[in-house]
Amino acid sequence: MLETRAALEGDRTLAYATLAPSVVFLVLLAGVPTITVFVTAMQDIGMGDMSGPYVGFENFVWALTSESFYTALWNTFIWVFGSVSIEMVLGLGLALLLNKTFAVRGIARAVILAPYLVPTVVAVLTWRYMFHDIVGIINAGLIATGLIDKPLLWLNSESLAMTSVILVGVWKFFPFAVIALLGILQAIPQEQYEAAKIDGASSMQQFWRITLPYVMPVFLLTALLRTIWTFHKFEIIYLMTGGGPLDATTTLPILVYLKAFTDFEFGRAAAVAILTFGILGILLGLYFMLIKRAEARQ
Amino acid sequence: MARLEIRQVSKIFADHTAVSDVSLTVNDGEFLVLLGPSGCGKSTLLRMIAGLDLPTYGDIVIGDRVATRLQPKDRNIAMVFQNYALYPHLTVYENIAFPLRVRGADSRLVDEKVQWAAGLVGLSKLLKRKPRQMSGGERQRTALARSLVRDPDVFLLDEPLSNLDAKLRHSAREELRQFQDRVGVTSVYVTHDQVEAMGLGDRIVVMQAGTVRQIGTPEEIYQHPADTFVATFMGSPPMNLVSQGDVTLGFRPESFLPEGNYPAGSDITRISFRVHRVEYLGGDRLLYGHVSGNLPETPAIARIPSSVAYSPVLGSETAFAVASGDLRRFETASGKALSTAVPASERRLAHA
User: Fold this and answer.
1) From CA B223, how far away is CA B349, in angstroms rounded?
2) What is the CATH number of the domain that holds B334?
3) N or C: which end of chain A has fewer CB within 10 A?
4) What residue of A is the nearest CA neighbor of B151?
5) Contact, B244 vs B257, CB < 8 A?
6) Global confidence as pTM
7) A252, A71 in Cβ contact below 8 A?
């Protein structure tokens, strides 16, 4: 086996060679922009002057002392908490329903997954029509049923805009929770329920004592994953309201965009982006911790 | 505790009949084993007793109540599942306590009962464990304790030993039987393993293709099989069958010995045997070969204790014999035994 060493060397060269393109792309596509953002955050870059002077942590100080940052942080919290909690509860309910045997189950499963497959832009434009104060079907329906007597400004009033975008976000993404939860529901062994029936557990007790504990780890992981994804969601809000009216729906990603491309304050935008990145990093850490715990339980 | 009666029960699924017109009675305190190959309907029958499946026809009577349409929880039965169906997120203590908790028992009673049941199956020291931290045998005992905790009238067991390795299965079988003797609950036990059935059952119900082939004590079933199916299903290696026109002769491998082994003048039936191969099993030797001579050439097996001095000559015809009392006769066409009468001396009361 004199060739072993040479063969190993050859294998290694081949391994590096095949890995190289991916590494190069990763560095170019993820590494360089990330570093650029960090560098930008330390500069005072404005319109027309892309080689702004180094200002240290000034942009961060601005962010952490400005009202707009905290408003965006609060809006982000409302947006994330509102969307994810409704998505998860709705998702669990529908998953439980779809897990039962009934006549049109196959069709129902397909229909419920549809929103997830509709392109966001198409979905948002459709919803904007539906939310329109004068020609929208939502106001028309509410007036026809007598619930309201004059049109509501769904997207143009500070009090309703966030509710509206949350509604659209939920509509678009609850199928994800349904898929994840339906998967775990189907993995619960039937004998568990049969044993419980013989032991005298009612349907409610079966839900609380068997279904829920079984589903909980996946429920939490899905909720956390949805939290992370909803946190940096940009296009739904931007296309629906552009962050307005005033700053009623300006979340952190929207603030980054507005700072950069409306106010042309790239340095401050980068600082907000990095702070957002930090919060997401904490959430991601939490996610991996939960995954590890779930794996340890297996 | 109660008597269990199954009256002309059938279960017909969309595409096949799983159980067909089965009637049987399990006496109070009896340990009855439902035995048969997979797909014979034994598990379906057990599920109907449990109330998990509804019979298409017939009735199930527990104690003096017709239970056919009662919910599982209203039958006061307990069931141990093949995979134990323990709740993975609950400790052993909470698993055992489950039937009491869902019935809203107060925590003092729960604790008393759990300690009692855990003590019975030797789990008192493991109550804080979760099922995943336990061995197969411990899980099985947890499932037993859970099923005991509410004093069921009838105890149903669906192949509870099949997930254990061979060594553990043997000791678990012994424990289970001792345990049933102690508790004395009417039990119905489903298995496809004839050794398990013989070792555990007061009586055995042999099922095939949804029907009952024979009901009897292990000895009755082994010594006097009702038909050729039971004759070949019970015993390993199975009973030798030799067709001779309308009649099929049957004899167990261990009753098939060299003629010289019988004292002169004993009532024996001589059968020539040509041995092809010898398998040494330690305590016994299995001789594979063909019967020949006055009988049609048919494959057969003889089981000779290693303590018997005998060295077979491969390929040559040897004089073997079966004690006439050990010879069984079946009708060739139907496979039914021709004389099913069991000698009174061999009859054993199910629960003497």
Assistant:
1) 16
2) 2.40.50.140
3) N
4) A199
5) no
6) 0.76
7) no
- Residues B194 and B309 placed together within one structural domain of the fold: no
> What tokens were used for A19?
């890995």
The position carrying tokens 């199954």 is B6
Residues B244, B202 within the same domain: no
**What's the CA angle centered on B148, arms B144 and B154, to 5 degrees?**
100
Tell me what ipTM this predicted complex has: 0.78
Q: Is residue B134 part of a domain?
A: yes
pLDDT per position as a tens digit, A222-278: 998 898 899 888 988 998 888 778 888 888 899 889 888 888 888 888 889 999 989
Same domain, B273 and B178: no
Selecting from A195, A210, A213 the residue whose C-beta is nearest the C-beta of B79 gives A195
Q: Which residue has the tokens 């019979």?
A: B55
Residue B340 lies in a domain: yes
Number of independent structural domains in chain B: 2
Pairing of strands B77-80, B154-158: parallel
Which DSSP helix (H) or strand (E) runs through B77? strand B77-80
Q: How far apart are CA A295 and CA A225, in angstroms?
A: 16
CB contact under 8 Å between B72 and A197, yes or no, is yes
Chain B residues touching residue A294 (CB < 8 angstroms): none
- Reading the block at residue A103, the tokens are 């006549």
Report the alpha-carbon distance of residue A283 to residue A84 in Å, rounded.
Answer: 14
Q: Are A198 and B102 an interchain contact pair (Cβ–Cβ within 8 Å)?
A: no
Q: Tell whether B216 and B260 lie within a shared domain.
A: no
Say whether both B138 and B245 belong to one domain: no
